[in-house]
Structures are given as structure tokens and as C-alpha cells.
Amino acid sequence: MAVPAATATPAQPGTAADAAAQPQVSVYLSQSGQIETLPLEDYVSGVIAAEMPADFELEALKAQAVAARTFIVRRLRAGDVSGVPVPGADVTDTISHQAYVSAATLEREWAHGGKSAELAKLRRAVLETRGIIMTYKGEPITASFFASSGGYTENSEDYWNAAVPYLRSVASPWEKGITPNYAVTYTFSTSELLNKLGVADKAVPASKDINHSAKAQSVASSSSGITIELLSLTTGHRIKQISIGGTLFTGREVREKLGLRSSQFTWKRKGNEIFITTYGNGHGVGMSQWGANGMAKEGSTATQILKHYYSGISFCQVSTLLKK
Length: 324
What we know:
The protein is an alpha+beta fold. It contains ten helices and 15 strands. It has helices at about 15-20, 40-50, 60-80, 105-110, 115-130, 190-195, 250-260, 290-295, 300-310, 320, and strands at about 25-30, 35-40, 90, 130-135, 140, 145, 185-190, 220, 225-235, 240-245, 245-250, 265-270, 275-280, 285-290, 315.
């Protein structure tokens, strides 16, 4: 990566002095209820083991390592312990923060469980990005990431409340040809759909049977008595606002109430069943992991991947930031 050199840290990697020089991260392990405290770089290894397949390209893994490191350094710097159920921990090992594989599990199931080569690759990605984080105006960014997009990432305000200058919608065409389950179809009966959405059966009778694409404006079925109308799309081509049975929903609300993989979806109806097809997987804000892998397959570096998905960011060393 064309970023500050790792030689900014005087202690040799892997030594006791090096571990002592690093920020320490305390992780609440949700299954055991214990807290594991370990050096920052070891924590990052545990995160990428949980968050990204080890068979991804090395440059994609390096991008994930920088994102993971940035996420936790931002929390440490701000003293943010939100979402942690017990005192004494900085973060949990769940997707509420970042998924994480404990040091003991890495040793047992990876180092001695037939995955030593994969573990070595992950640790190489961490070592080659050692200490590097992303900043915007001198502060660590909110390095959000998700599995795969349906062609575009999302502006932050279209999924969360705040507009963040570096979390802008960008094209992400790489996922479509490489992502397993890129398009997934869910089947709901009309009554099941209404129940999950909490919509009373008050729909206005409609005119025609339906097929929906992102460009269509409405879809309805007189036999089911339910009207579905697309009202607007986000910049990232996801559902922004939709009317179902006369009730307004955001795309995020529909995704969460129905348990969909994405708020980018189309639908069609056959008889009393509604088929909803989602594209991509996740909230869509920040870096697409499968998109990062697709970029790496085409020769992009970790730096190029990160600068694509996070607009206007810079890089710096953790040690430099913590001295401020």
C-alpha cells in the first residue's frame, strides 16, 4: 500500500516489546461471557478471520484489515463502549461491532486444524498493512463495510440518519459475476407478508396482476386486495420509500421486517404468493467485501480499493494518531 511505512513502529513485529507498544483491545466473547485482551494487530487478525473468506485475494484482505483496524481505533480513541454488555470491554465479537475469532479458536481450529496456510495469509495481510488506518480531516473514519452490493453502494443518510462525507454512493459492478447468492428470491403468502409488515388488511383493490422492476411505479393485484407501490429509489438504486397496503415504509424497514438480505429488491406475484428477489447482501454503506475481491482480481491494490469505497480519505499510522 502506498501509505505510511510500518517502520514507524520501532519494535520488531511479534516481539514482547512490540505487543506492549501496541494499543490493547478488550473483546467481550459473547458465547463464554469472558473478556479477551490482546494487542491491536492480533485483534485485527481475528476480525478478518471472521469477516472475510481467507481465499479472497490478498489485496482485498489487506483492505479489510485496514477497515477493521480503523473501526476499532475510532472506538478506542473516542472511548466508545456502546453496545458492550459488561464493563471492562471495548467491543463485542458480534456483527453489532465486528465479528471476531478468538485467539484460542485461531490456534485450535486454524493453526492446528488444517488451516495454517489460510491463517498465515490473513496474518500477512495484517502485517503488510501494519498500524495503518483511514482518516478524514485527521480523525479515524467510521469504516463501515458489508458483504455485497447490487451494483452501487449507498449514501450513509439513505440507510442511517446522518450524511457522512466519505460514505458516498459509488458504482460497484464487480460483485455480479463472482458473488454466490447474488440474487435471492423469497416467497411470501399475501397474509404472511402483511402480518410480518404489521399492515392491517385495508389495501385498496387494484387493477392488474403484476411484474415489478426498479423502473416500474406500482404493482397490485385485485385478487389479493394488496397494493404495492414504489415511491422512490435511493442514489444507490435501493428502495427508498414504498407503499404496501396503503402503509408507507422505507426500504430498510421492509428489509428488516421481512428478513431480507438487502433493501435492493424487485417483486412479482403469482396467485396468492409474492416473490421478492434481493440483489447483494447487507446495508450497502461503505466497502463491499465481494466488490473489494472483484477489484483485487482485476489488479487493484488495497489502497485503490479503499479510496474507491471511502471517498476523500487519507491514511496514517495509529502510533502517529495516538500521539496527538
